[in-house]
Amino acid sequence: MSAETSSPSVIVVGGAGYIGSHVCKAFAQQGILPITFDNLSTGHNHAVKWGPLIEVDLCDRATIFEEIEKHSHVPLVVHLASSIEVGFGEKHPDSFYMNNVVGALNLLDAMKNSSINKIIFSSTCATYGEISNLPINEKEVQSPYSVYGKTKLAIEHMLQSYHKAFDLNYVTLRYFNAAGADESGEIGEEHDPETHLIPLALASAAGLRQRMKIFGNDYDTPNGTCIRDYIHVNDIAQAHLLSWDKLQNGLTKAELNIGTGKGYSNLEILKTVEKVTGLPMPYDIEPRRDGDLSQLYADTSRAQSVLGFEAKYSDLDFIVRTAWRFFKSKHQI
Ligand SMILES: NC(=O)c1ccc[n+]([C@@H]2O[C@H](COP(=O)([O-])OP(=O)(O)OC[C@H]3O[C@@H](n4cnc5c(N)ncnc54)[C@H](O)[C@@H]3O)[C@@H](O)[C@H]2O)c1
Ligand SMILES: O=c1ccn([C@@H]2O[C@H](COP(=O)(O)OP(=O)(O)O[C@H]3O[C@H](CO)[C@H](O)[C@H](O)[C@H]3O)[C@@H](O)[C@H]2O)c(=O)[nH]1
What's the CA-to-centroid distance between 223 and ligand 1, angstroms? Predict the structure, then answer.
């Protein structure tokens, strides 16, 4: 018998990416073999370390059907594969709807065609839109502003419909801002192009790019810059293990925020980067970035009561320290 069929396993679609690689490591540490399905469009071969890589594109419907059928002994799929660059989505909605919505449809149909009826889906706080009631509770009406958020909400709706009609069981995890890296330094954030605040600030501090641009200081927040809820990527990975366990033990559906409940402003992030790296953090204030919302932080009570989830690794210093360690090893600093 191969390792794939003899040990408990999970299919991780998007397992070669930033969050997916941490999810794979977390499953492997529990003795569950992660089988990565990925087209390596933004992910990396070298980040697939804990199980096999099946190179497959979600938009290739026939091949996805074949591969899911071949792995129909696997009880559960984690679906992280997505286009994520928010600005690109505004200019190329066709590409975003194709990759995210059609890709997810192909995956769900392939699962329907096989015996796999459990899925954990990576959604985002970007599905909410501007919410004045903070922290954000899952009961808020979702009115996403970006194409990215709209594609994610469309997939959330697909999951609800497939649950009702075809008994597909799901946990939708609405991550807030993923950040940090595994303490080992072996995996971390490697987006190209990078658009996220912390890795860009580290690169600016290290002198590997221009001064940081802070998009707007005229928001209705204490220092005028946007506020986000940064959650360590290994906390996100733990939320997947808990969801896996609950789905295996009778949970049939849930939509859950995955955050810390605490928000930090963009300027607080720059200060922490300066403190952790010991390097000056030059920045300029620029106009607002299109599509940015002023404040997003999570009400975490539902994830706590449904999963028993609580962020353990998301102290901001620890997030930036682990991101810095990975950054230095990647750039051999
Ligand atoms: N990074 C964040 O802050 C954040 C926040 C909220 C939600 N999310 C969600 O988490 C998930 C993972 O994000 P990430 O930051 O790890 O991104 P990432 O780009 O590092 O990972 C995405 C992975 O999916 C793969 N992929 C993309 N399209 C594919 C396709 N058609 N077929 C097969 N594989 C494909 C890529 O090659 C990559 O390995 C995404 O769904 C994203 O929307 C991320
Ligand atoms: O060079 C930069 C980069 C970012 N920012 C600011 O930093 C904050 C955080 O921006 P990120 O790009 O790091 O992350 P977002 O909050 O835009 O995250 C969005 O995109 C992600 C996907 O990539 C997630 O899905 C997330 O849920 C969704 O809200 C924003 O105020 C942004 O304007 C800057 O000021 N300068």
Answer: 31
